[in-house]
Amino acid sequence: MTTDLNFSSAFFEQFECPICFEYFKLPIHLCSLGHSICNRCKERSRNCPQCRQPFIQNSRNISLEKIFEQVSKRCKFSECSSEVTLDQWHNHQSECKYNPNIKCLECGSSEEFLINHLVRNHEYKEISMEQNECLRSFSGPMASWHSNTEWPKGIWKFGEEYLVVKAKTHSGVFHVYLYRISKNLIAISLEITNQDTGACIKFKGDIPHISDYVDLSTSPHFNCEIKQLMTFIKVQEDEQDTYKLSVKVKKKDIVMYIEEPIIEESHLDEFEEHAIEELPLDVFEDRIIEESSLDDFEV
């Protein structure tokens, strides 16, 4: 009987979530008018995106979930030959060894265009920066500085380079986590200054890749006790209940130097003589930045 069935191309569009336009991530939820939404998008949506009606608690599209268990498709990564049922599609994409994409630090999905995904689905704000130096600020009521707070998330855009920024106040310490998207190595320095006293806290170091993200990680990042920051936090002139911390941000690309190949022993003395004469001074300057640690800030 099934051999008599024909499907139009629009049939397979019904397998896609109307918010993320990817195959539904199970479980599949229903609104009061019967529209479906995947579990990942349901967690971020109060109402149905198609009719604006509320979702029914504990209501699922069981029939479509059963279909997903029976429909399979080859992995979308060309080097992988696995046939995957749609109910396991997202799990396979995240774990596939041929996946060149970046794992989202918020929901764990595999994303080819992570920046767009973070802005669209996780309320990240993209902020254009000057090419190598810019002034940024963190603002909020005094309670935000003294209690556990997750600050608005951002993406600092330096030309074609993107840095993911997450800031938290946790257990009396202010943390700023920075992660690069590209494979290019990047060094960042952050500087906060009290304009009245001239007191200054400086911090610099290499930025880890987004694939190394761990929430509240002890990996290199900026961290400072709130009681120490109080002399740098100022009341905003136009909002008396808002307190702002201004931070000067500087970016520097790190140049990787490839070591010279090993020379046969008979020519070693000649090689060393030329190496000493031709070695550029800026090699040492860049290595100083490479070896610095994000936890090594100066007061």
TrEMBL record:
Entry keyword set: Metal-binding, Zinc, Zinc-finger
Gene3D superfamilies: Zinc/RING finger domain, C3HC4 (zinc finger)
RING-type domain boundaries: 17-52
DNA repair found in the keyword field: no
Protein source organism: Stentor coeruleus
PROSITE patterns, sorted: ZF_RING_2 (PS50089)
Pfam families: Sina_RING
Entry's Gene Ontology cellular component terms: cytoplasm
Name of the protein in question: RING-type domain-containing protein
Taxonomic path: Eukaryota, Sar, Alveolata, Ciliophora, Postciliodesmatophora
GO MF assignments: ubiquitin protein ligase activity; zinc ion binding
